[in-house]
Amino acid sequence: MAEAVDPPFDRPDVGFNDLSGWTWVGCYGGYYLQAELLREFEHGFFTRQWQGREPEVLAGYLSAGVTVHRPRQVHSAVVLTASAAREAPWPESDGLCSDAGGQSLWVCGADCTPVLLADPVRGAVAACHAGWRGVAGRILAAAVEMLAAAGSRPADLLVALGPAVSGARYQVERAVSEQVAAGLDAGSVAAGLTLLREAGALLEDPEPGRERLDIRAVARLQLHRLGVADERISVCPLCTVSEPDLFHSWRRDQVKAVQWSGIVSQA
Predict the structure, then answer these.
(1) ∠128-251-203 over CA atoms, to 5°?
(2) Separation CA 193–CA 246 (nearest Å)
(3) Could you tell me which of 39, 116, 134, 171 has the fewest CB atoms within 10 Å of its CB?
(4) Upper half-sphere CA count for residue 18 (Cβ side, 13 Å)
């Protein structure tokens, strides 16, 4: 039986313990995070402590009797229906949208943002792996548009952005910033860069030709521009690079390892 618990580690630093809007859930298998905004939906952002357990196992900690759907992630902006990703070989995609009830949708990452979207009116959900390439390619727009095509309204959506690399720890080249800016569809790259800076998503870096990119702030900005209000978006404050006990991080360790995040559709 899962239940809300105190943080799994005794940590004195404020950043770890100040998880307003987020809850640690403990069960016999370990701990995972939930966004209180999505409390009506069975979902979880799992940590590196669950390494070795794939979605087929993890799904059971969220809900019994669900079907498991997962893509073969390739840093794309492709979103598929869940029914198209039900068994191996998993299709190449970085996002899934539910098209029936009782579907458990999963994405993984190690620094990129796991994004879970839910429509409390229809019970539909989506899950996206949103790194800079996916955000630049407008993967969140693709997910919102797929949900809308099935009857969801962007204004009704609830979205949780899970643990990912923070802006302070994510140095990128100007070429990356420009591609991300272009993905905002602001009319020009220069206009997009201005929007990024105004949103606090693009920060100065002391090294010439480099900048710091807050990919979750970019995702939030894109969602705003798609019609999702700020109060309907929850951002986890934990940084994957800064929390080696909790999360795998490619940028920190240069090791291919991931943590999974999933959500279950209601209809």
Answers:
(1) 80
(2) 32
(3) 39
(4) 5
User: CA–CA separation, 59 vs 136, rounded Å?
Assistant: 30
* Residue-averaged pLDDT of the chain: 93
Alpha-carbon span 250 to 241, nearest angstrom: 8
116 token code pair: 């879970």
Exposure b/e, 54-93, CB count within 10 A at least 16 = b? ebeebbebbeeebbbbbbebeebbbbbbbeebeeeeebeb
The secondary element (H helix, E strand) that includes residue 176 is helix 174-182
Question: What residue ranges define each of the domains in the chain, with the CATH number in brackets?
Answer: 3-170+214-264 (3.60.140.10)
Q: How many CB atoms lie within 10 A of CB 188?
A: 11
Task: Kindly report each contact of residues 49-58 with a partner whose C-beta sits within 8 Å and lies 24 or more positions away, as own/partner.
Answer: 49/8, 49/246, 50/259, 50/260, 51/248, 51/257, 51/259, 53/29, 54/260, 55/104, 55/106, 55/260, 55/262, 58/106, 58/260, 58/262
* Listed range (9-18, 41-50, 60-69, 144-153) with the worst mean pLDDT: 9-18
Contact call for residues 168 and 223 (beta carbons, < 8 A): no
Q: pTM value?
A: 0.94
The per-residue pLDDT for 27 is: 86
* 10-21 burial: b if 16+ Cβ within 10 Å, else e: eeeeeebeebee
Q: Do the bridges between strand 202-204 and strand 210-213 make them parallel or antiparallel, or are there none, so unpaired?
A: antiparallel
